[in-house]
Amino acid sequence: MSRIACITGATSGIGKACAERYAQAGYDLIITGRRVDRLQQLQTAFQTRYGINVMPLHLDVRHRQEVEQAFQLLPTQWQQVDILINNAGLALGLSPLQDGDPSDWDTMIDTNVKGLLYVTRVISPSMIARRQGHIVNIGSTAAKDTYPNGNVYCATKRAVEALSEAMRIDFLPYGIKVTAIHPGAVETEFSVVRFKGDEQRAAQVYQGFQPLTPADVAEVIFYCTSLPAHVCINDLVLTPTAQANAHLIYKTP
């Protein structure tokens, strides 16, 4: 029986790269996302290319009832997830707190924090029952270092770090590994989403240095989940060589 990896936010960026990396390794996949067309495309591509099984779940992790219903209705053979990658997340806006949009705050908090909790809550009981499993939470260098105008986004990623520590404590008696991965600058749709579709402004974020690729991050995540049973990487920060912390990147003129 193939092992199962569940990846939230799998339709782009780090999530998509993780799905591909685990598919290459022969894992069956549960992939979640809000864009049903992309989910279907990935299902077809991975099943054809790698000969694995893929279960797409069209849902928004912000909505608890959607999450609970989707996972509770999974066929029995899909209910024993070996690796959960809580990847779904986003940043919206880049402004001082006093100028921030509360609707953006709600979306970030509901996705980055509550969505992670909802998915973990429905999947972890089967891991506990089997006394095995690995949960990977995608944080950010923003969890380690608050940067100007990052306020609420940084707070949500610091919450991911705290929740990862709490999970490690709560799941310790059951042999479940918990790893927090904190990437720096990765060239994805992240900045396009943050700047509400302004592709020119988003492109400037990655100019003058070589950012990480989603595949770079996926390879690190795969490594962390491929270690012997008695070894767990608890907390890992990875950045481009040109990046020192969440807000300091050396860019060539």
How would you describe what is shown here?
The protein is of the alpha/beta class and 253 residues long. Helices cover 43% and strands 14% of the residues. The protein has a domain at 63-238: NAD(P)-binding Rossmann-like Domain (Rossmann fold). It has a seven-stranded parallel β-sheet, sandwiched between helices. The N and C termini lie far apart (53 Å).
Draw up the topology in text.
Blueprint: E1 4-7, H1 13-24, E2 28-33, H2 36-50, E3 54-58, H3 64-72, E4 83-86, H4 102-130, E5 134-138, H5 151-170, E6 177-183, H6 190-194, H7 199-205, H8 214-224, E7 235-238
Parallel strand pairs: 1-2, 1-4, 2-3, 4-5, 5-6, 6-7
Radius of gyration: 18 Å
Kindly report the average pLDDT value.
Answer: 97
The H/E string reads EHEHEHEHEHEHHHE
Overall helicity: 40-55%
- Spatial ordering of strands, largest sheet: 3-2-1-4-5-6-7
The CATH C-level name of the domain at 63-238 is Alpha Beta
CATH topology name of the domain at 63-238, in short, is Rossmann fold
* Residue share in β-strands: 5-15%
Q: End-to-end distance, in Å?
A: 53 Å
The H-level CATH homologous superfamily of the domain at 63-238, spelled out, is NAD(P)-binding Rossmann-like Domain
- The structure class reads alpha/beta
By DSSP, the count of extended strands is 7
